[in-house]
Design a protein that fits this description.
There is one protein chain. This protein is an alpha/beta fold and 203 residues long. The protein has a single domain, classed as Rossmann fold, CATH 3.40.50. It contains seven helices and six strands; from the N terminus they run βααβαβαααβαββ. A six-stranded mixed beta sheet has the order 3-2-4-1-5-6. Helix 2 packs parallel to helix 3, helix 4 crosses helix 5 and helix 6 packs across helix 7. It is globular and about 50 Å long. It starts with a strand and ends with a strand. The model has no long low-confidence stretch (mean pLDDT 95).
């Protein structure tokens, strides 16, 4: 039996609204993000999830806690592998500010994202290794395989999981669209196979 894995991006933060790279910076939800979390929790009541997982970052944990309460206080666990990519020195900067300081690197990030490493941060291959490890050894593996798991995470891990499910290369990273107001659904089968299962509206 497959496990339905629902990957949800955390609610909005002030840095999202300002167009700033966040990465590992521990930004909180803004009021609009908190409202998004409540809307997601209400939309997920029929998913019959038995476990909520979350990135360790504050914005994801707050989103996950709201969803957990909406679903009847099911277990919630932090998984470090769901953390966002580390953008290093780009964190806190807008794209215009990055362009002023690293114009060539920003062009390369848009043209060939698999080829760069953020100054003082990571490259896509680092995030891919975490996602693949999560899929091969998920936290629910020690228990009876659940029917549905919700994981609150970030843009990077969701895009990387989508690439894994489709068998696409890291070069396609920026081509994976994250739809606002929707969660990405997958079917997970041991020993870590992922199949796309469509989008789930959250609004």
């Amino acid at each position: 039996m497959s496990t339905r894995l629902i990957l949800i991006r955390h609610g909005l933060t002030a840095w999202n609204l300002a167009g700033r790279y966040q990465g590992r910076t521990n930004t909180p939800l803004c009021p609009a993000g908190l409202a998004e979390a409540h809307g997601a929790g209400a939309a997920l009541r029929d998913a019959r999830a038995s476990l909520v997982l979350t990135s360790p970052l504050r914005r994801a944990r707050a989103t996950a806690e709201v969803i957990r309460r909406c679903l009847g206080s099911i277990p919630c666990r932090v998984d470090e592998r769901l953390v966002e990519l580390g953008f290093g020195e780009w964190e806190g900067l807008t794209q215009a500010e990055v362009r002023q300081r690293w114009p060539a690197l920003l062009r390369e990030w848009k043209r060939a994202p698999q080829s760069i490493r953020f100054p003082g941060g990571e490259g896509l291959a680092d995030g891919l290794r975490r996602v693949q490890d999560f899929l091969r050894s998920p936290p629910w593996e020690a228990f009876a395989q659940p029917r549905c798991v919700i994981a609150v995470t970030h843009t990077g891990p969701i895009r990387l999981a989508s690439l894994c499910s489709d068998g696409r290369p890291l070069a396609d990273y920026r081509q994976v669209a994250l739809q606002a107001g929707a969660a990405h659904q997958f079917d997970w089968d041991p020993p870590g196979h992922l199949r796309p299962a469509g989008l789930l509206p959250l609004t």
